[in-house]
Amino acid sequence: MTVTTHKDADGVVIALEGELNTLAAPAFEEAVTRELENTTHLVVDMEKLTYITSAGLRILLMAQQGMDDKEGTLVIRHVNAEVSEVFNVTGFSGILTVEA
Asked: 74: closest CA among 45, 50, 100, 53?
């Protein structure tokens, strides 16, 4: 999996490409942890993400809690049908702000 970070008009964007599984989760967690310290608006772009496991969900929950603590926002963008189904089944669609 590839994790890239950049800033745009919406804040900090973390873009994911590939599969977010147990092996890839540490790179994503490191990026989220680093950016939680520096921003109040975080976007996770999942346009090129093909798969997510519970390890990835845990990090998203951590990011949401971190943003809630500092009254910031977390937005998940460009979620494909498979990842969307995981969000729906696990209840994450009710916790996260997901945009098309």
From this structure: 45
Tokens, residue 35: 């950016």
Looking at the domain assignment, is residue 75 inside a domain? Answer: no
Reported pTM: 0.95
Encode pLDDT of 22-38 as tens digits. 999 999 999 999 999 98
Domain boundaries, position 1: 1-70
- The CATH number of whichever domain residue 32 belongs to comes to 3.30.750.24
List Cα–Cα distances, 15 to 4, 29, 48, 89, 91, in angstroms.
5, 13, 8, 23, 23
- Going by the DSSP 8-state scheme, the letter that residue 40 receives in this structure is S
